[in-house]
Design brief:
With 359 residues, this protein is α/β, with parallel strands linked by helices. It is built from 12 helices and 12 strands. The protein has one domain (2-356): Rossmann fold (3-Layer(aba) Sandwich), CATH 3.40.50.720. Helix 2 (65-74) runs parallel beside helix 4 (96-118). Its EC number is 4.2.1.46.
């Protein structure tokens, strides 16, 4: 049975990845989920699998060398999938040091612990071991509005403390691959959306605010462009890179769904109005009149767009979920999990598990 160490598995993308892997492999794999349970980590995301015999949760911070080394010492880890990171740009602008510590130092700890566990006396590594570092398209900086795409060869040009810290972590992984021939890959993905996303992010924020008749904040002129990727498609890409990707390579994972932020908000409003029943009182609250333009974010990149040509050609992955379908699936999930959203927005989600795993 192959053993996966997943960092940040209680977060949005990490928890979706764990669900995907159990759907695909069931009892053929074992997953150890390591998460510090910060505000973005929510074990309710994994409640329906928490009692599986082949799933283990460990509350630990990736910066804690002793805790991470102990996990490697006590388990024969075959795969590391490293999601754990501080990821919200606005928070990075307010408190950049936390992002540097988690994203750079935490990645260094993960790399070193994996290297120490997997390295053989002759400097090579145990066969079959792989480390996958999950990163972002934001490390590439900003594109012009009139064209161009991010490729794996695009020079790094981060503009926020968040993207700079992720660029730093990418460079560490590249250095380990070059210096030690460490068995790793890097994936750089576009903006994810789907179930379990923390409501400070654009899509769940707009869904939740619209349903409650609250203002829908739009930075600047609302014409900043992002490439949107349905989170399950991303999970599939990560699995395919680990199993079929060439070692030491970077793969860009994009959704072919470029949209302006204002377009995203308008699509959500229109989709909510279509999906809500006529007798649902929330339908009257959902309106474009809620759109409110606010001062632009500092260092706000204008456009991101990924060219996923390499992963398509080498591995055969492609984004299966177009935005129109994905946003309906996402909204339907939030309709079915209003209690989840309520506990997250109120902060109640942290109380039970924090008490259970209290240090």
């Amino acid at each position: 049975m192959r053993t996966y160490l997943v960092t940040g598995g209680a977060g949005f993308i990490g928890s979706n990845y764990i669900h995907y892997m159990f759907r695909k492999y069931d009892n053929e794999i074992r997953i150890i989920n390591v998460d510090a349970l910060t505000y973005a980590g929510n074990l309710e995301n994994l409640k329906d699998i928490e009692n599986r015999d082949n799933y283990t949760f460990v509350k630990a911070n990736i910066c804690d060398k002793e805790a991470i080394a102990k996990i490697f010492a006590e388990n024969d880890i075959d795969r590391v999938v490293h999601f754990a990171a501080e990821s919200h740009v606005d928070r990075s602008i307010r408190n950049p040091e936390v992002f540097v510590q988690t994203n750079v130092l935490g990645t260094a700890v993960m790399l070193n612990c994996a290297k120490n566990a997997w390295e053989l006396p002759d400097g090579t590594f145990k066969p079959g071991k792989k480390f996958l570092h999950v990163s972002t398209d934001e490390v590439y900086g900003s594109l012009s509005e009139d064209g161009g795409y991010f490729y794996e060869t695009t020079p790094y040009a981060p503009h926020s403390p968040y993207s700079a810290s992720k660029a730093g972590s990418d460079m560490l992984v590249k250095a380990y691959m070059d210096t030690y021939h460490f068995p790793a890959n890097i994936t750089n993905c576009s903006n994810n959306y789907g179930p379990y996303q923390f409501p400070e992010k654009l899509i769940p924020l707009i869904i939740n605010n619209a349903l409650h008749g609250k203002k829908l904040p739009v930075y600047g002129d609302g014409k900043n462009v992002r490439d949107w990727l349905y989170v399950e498609d991303h999970a599939k890409a990560i699995d395919m890179v680990q199993e079929q990707g060439r070692l030491f390579e970077t793969y860009n994972v994009g959704g072919h769904n470029e949209k302006q932020n204002i377009q995203i908000i308008e699509i959500i409003i229109e989709t909510l109005q279509e999906m809500l029943a006529d007798d649902d009182p929330r339908k009257a609250l959902v309106s474009k009149d809620l759109i409110t333009y606010v001062a632009d974010r500092k260092g706000h990149d204008r456009r991101y767009a990924i060219a996923p040509d390499k992963i398509k050609e080498e591995i055969g992955w492609y984004p299966e979920t177009m935005f129109k379908e994905g946003i309906k699936k996402t909204i339907a999930w939030y309709f079915e999990h209003e209690d989840w959203m309520e506990r997250v927005t109120s902060g109640d989600y942290q109380k039970y598990y924090n008490e259970m795993y209290k240090a």
